[in-house]
Amino acid sequence: MAARVPADPPETYETLRPLLFSIAYRMVGSVSEAEDIVQEAFLRHHRAVSAGDTEVHAPKAWLSAVTTRLAIDHLRSARVRRETYVGPWLPEPLMTDPGPDPSERAELSDSLSIAFLAVLESLSPVERAVYLLREIFGYGYDEVARVVDRSEDNCRQLVTRARRHVEEHRPRFAVSPERQEELTERFMHAVETGDADALVALLAEDAVAYTDGGGKVRAAPRPVVGREKVARFLTVTVRRGAAETPFTIHTAAINGRPGRVVVGEDGTVLGVIELDISPSGIRAVNVVSNPDKLRHVTVAP
C-alpha cells in the first residue's frame, strides 16, 4: 500500500476520493486494488502540482483520467493472473450503505452488483472504461475520448457495443429492493434448514452457483448449473460446513444488494453471499470465500 497522500488540499482528496474509488472499483473488481489505484492517482496529482503542471487546474478531470488509465493498465496485467485463477473468479465484495432511499438503492444496485461486474469482465479494458465513464458516470464523449486517447466516433462505437453486451445479460425487468430482501431471507432460511424443495422453488430454472475460494479454501471448481443441482449443492455444503466449523450469519448490504456475511466462532469472516435476482427467481448465487478477498469485510458487533 502506498504512503498516505501528502500536501494536496484536503477538500480535493475528501471530495473526489469517492468518485475515483467508484471508477476504479468498477473497473478492477477489487477493493484493495482500487484503493491502491486511487492512492497512486493522488500521489501523481501531488507531484504534478508541486512541479507546476498547468494541466492539473481541473482536479476532477485530471484525476478521473489518471485513475481510469491506471485501472486499464492494471486490467491488462491482471488478465494473465485471471487465466490461472483456481475456480470461478468473482469480484471482491464491497460493503455498502443500506441507508439510501429506494430509488438511490436501486440505481446503486444496478451498477455495482456482482452480476454486473462479472459481465464487465468479458469486455476489454478500454471498452469497460468507455462504457463506465459514459453510461454510469455521465462523462461526455469528448471527455471520454481524451481519457482513453481514442476518437469520439470510436468511443461511441465502443459504448454501443458494450451497452448491447451488458443488456443481453441483464434481466428485462427490475426487482424492487424490498422483494430482493424478502427472497434473500427466504433463501437463507431454506439453506440453513436444509430445505432443498424450498430452494428449488426460489431458484430460476437455469440458476447457477458460483463459489470463489481461489484455491485457498474448499469450493466448487466449476459453476454449479441447474436449480436442482444448485439446491442440492448448497444444502450439502452448508450442512457439512456447519459440522466442521460452527458459524453465524449476519445481514449486510453487499454491492448495493441485500446480502449475508458468514462469520466463524472466532470472529473470522468465512464468506459473503450475494444473490442475482430476476422476476423469474434467483438467477445466480454468488459466494466469495477466498480469504484474500474478505480482509476488508466487517460486521457490526
Characterization of the model:
The structure is a single chain. A hairpin with a 2-residue loop joins β5 and β6 (281-288). The chain has a six-stranded mixed beta sheet with strand order 2-1-6-5-4-3. The protein starts with 9 loop residues before the first helix and ends in a 13-residue tail after the last strand. The chain is globular, with a radius of gyration of 20 Å. The protein is built from eleven helices and six strands. α3 (59-83) crosses α7 (141-148). Residues 1-7 have low confidence and may be disordered. The chain has 301 residues and is α+β, with helices and mostly antiparallel strands.
How would you write the strand order of the largest sheet?
Answer: 2-1-6-5-4-3
State the shape: globular
What structural class do the secondary elements suggest?
Answer: alpha+beta
Give the integer mean of the pLDDT values.
Answer: 89
Give the uncertain stretches in residue-range form. 1-7
Oligomer: single chain
Following the backbone from N to C, one meets helices and strands in this order, namely HHHHHHHHHHEEHEEEE
- How would you sum up the major sheet? 6 strands, mixed
Count up the helices. Answer: 11
